[in-house]
Amino acid sequence: MKLTSLWLCGFAAMPFAAQAQTEISWWHAMTGANAEVVEKIAGDFNASQSDYVVKPVFKGTYPETLNAGIAAFRAGQAPDIMQVFDVGTGVMMGAGGAIKPVAEVLAEGGFTFDKSQYLPGIVGYYSTPEGEMLSFPYNSSSPILYYNKDIFEKAGLDVNAPPQTWAEVWAAARKIKESGAATCGYTSTWLTWIHTENFAAWNNVPWATNENGLAGTPELKIDAPLFVKHFQEIADLAKEGVLVYGGRTSEAKQNFTSGECGILTESSGGLGDVVKSGMNYGIGKLPYDETAEGAPQNTTPGGASLWVMAGKSDEVYKGVATFFDYLSQTEVQKYLHEQSGYLPVTMAAYEATKSSGFYDENPGRETPILQMSGKPPTENSKGVRAPNLPQLRDIQNEEYEKMLAGQQTAEEALKNAVTRGNAAIKEAAGG
Amino acid sequence: MQRTVFPHKVLPWLLLAPQLAVTLIFFYWPAGQAFRQSTLREDPFGLSSTFVGLANFRRVLSDPSYLNALQVTVVFSLFVAFLPMVIALFLAVQAEKIVRGRGVYRTLMIWPYAVATAIAGMLWLFMFNPSFGTLAWPLRQMGINWNPLLNSSHAMILVVAAATWKQISYNFLFFVAGLQAIPRSLLEAAAIDGASRRHAFWTIVFPLLAPTTFFLLVVNTVYALFDTFGIIHAVTGGGPGKATETLVYKVYNDGFVNLNMGDSAAQSVILMVIVIALTAFQFRYIERRVHYG
């Protein structure tokens, strides 16, 4: 009797439970501490209301997540929300009918979307040339300079004055090597993102035509004299053994945290590992080239954004809009920023972090924001976009590696990268 | 020879059905998809696709980086097909000579086979990474400027070494079995006739091992062409430049990193043709010289 009534109760309640809560799937690529942040945010959101349940699913690295999402879309099983890294932005923008612009989702969900509340440098990157925001910037980072204070001291350099320009970096790196303070003066992660894309923005020179591809199909301009000069300096340092090449992505971080190299340029998102290594480090702005006019300009965002896939029910879109609204809340953004080292997305969150004294306690954490938002962006510094950016980076890496191995000069490397890159863009855009 | 005729018409097909189903679903269907895709030009999301005939093949075959991948694959495969055999044969012959602890020795030799390809790659990467590799340091002390991140030959040596190491166990296993199948009496007769050990090996043992050697040649070739993907992915990612980008790695890179499905599919079709041709050649010309005893 008792059992039957319980069973009946359960049966009666079931359809309600199914109706009351709409599930929203969120595919992401976050690991370690950043994955915990994802779980915490989703859990808090689910607890804050009873209509929607956000389910985060880890899908591997950034490229793996993108591929999984594309494959799922082709099979008609796309997730509701997908995290796509900066480099995949062009791919997603070209996807047209596969995605639903975030601005549209928010507006239809009944939320007023005020663009001015968001950090302009970040939102601009994820918007169409007409200004419609296509994806929600979840985690943004910017390249900065890290230096080992112990090595600086040993080499007789000023531990409180990180080098500001590339010329100063080279001089400091040579001094580190010559004085024997370390076997390697300088190393860098991501030669493509830091020394090519951000180098262009920070020194206010074009990376490609058509506003670096934001306004149309780009044609690469990275064989301009400033790039040639910069990369020849890098090649010379590599030849002298002052610069050690770590690899195409973030491998070089290891050369820095192990104490092999005295100076590193890396994403602000890499801070966690540097802190964890327990080393005595300092942070500076990304160096610029003092011969470039108007430098330093501003850096462009890296990281990833959240895309909403097309073809879902209104209920799901309402839930996604509610979730994004929750994500924009000041406390949530502040938490995200302080825990993960990624940048806050809204001005309010930035102000709140500032007034809480977080930056006084953690000097250097404000650097990437100042870099990105210090000046209003120009045509050259809103970011770069191409339908096949991953491929372009591959091509550049191949040419840079040949250059670093002494098989070609910087000018040859950059000329080749431009010729091969433009051919690849033409093919991708024409297809 | 008497030809056996089975009375049933349906039963044989029924018994074959599972095998046929597996082959159809996991081989013919994907292969058919690859053929179809190789004639299409499609955006990554599959929203629009146009039939382009053989344009993808034309572009792939005129691409200098494809020819480079072909060259890399030939060099890589030759090393990875033959090196494990030579080393494994040597070790197997040596293992035969051991009287005490032969089992332990053999077990230890077979162990690496249990290591997954990608893990094998990571192991070698950790040992020989120029900045934190345990064995890269002594190399540098010896005056060798070891840097597989930038030096193409070093990178090639590293992936060949890792792929070879992984395959030695398998070759060893088969050579040990092959050696045990050789009748003692033949070797004893040779010894009585006054043949030296070396002479007996080259004139008796090695020819009798031919079926095993041939089998391993086919297996190693297929291994070098396909299964080494994990090692290359983990150790070099095809770099530096494109120095270790094999055909399989290029298929993956163009399809799943550069999202160019048409070119990638065309490449896998070409690869399929190469492997079919290679295997047919091996069976037709090399197998003829093999004695199955």
What does this structure look like?
- The complex is a heterodimer of chains A (431) and B (293).
- By secondary structure, chain A is α/β, with parallel strands linked by helices.
- Chain A contains 20 helices and ten strands.
- Chain A folds into two domains: 17-141 and 301-361, Periplasmic binding protein-like II (D-Maltodextrin-Binding Protein, domain 2), CATH 3.40.190; 143-299 and 386-430, D-Maltodextrin-Binding Protein, domain 2, CATH 3.40.190.10.
- In chain A, strands 1, 2, 3, 4, 5 and 10 form a six-stranded mixed β-sheet that branches. In chain A, strands 7-8-6-9 form a four-stranded mixed β-sheet.
- In chain A, helix 2 (32-48) links the parallel strand 1 and strand 2 (52-58).
- Chain A is globular.
- Chain B has helices at residues 11-38, 55-62, 64-97, 102-110, 117-128, 136-141, 152-180, 184-192, 197-208, 210-227, 229-235, 247-257, 261-286, and strands spanning 40-42, 49-51.
- With 293 residues, chain B is an all-alpha fold.
- Chain B has one domain: Orthogonal Bundle (MetI-like fold), CATH 1.10.3720.
- Chain B has a two-stranded antiparallel ribbon.
Shape of chain B: globular
Reading the helices and strands of chain A in chain order gives: HEHEHEHEHHEEHHEHHHHEHEEHHHHHHH
DSSP strand tally of chain B? 2
Measured by residues with Cβ under 8 Å of the partner chain's Cβ, the largest interface is: A-B, 35 and 27 residues
Percent of residues in helices of chain A: 40-55%
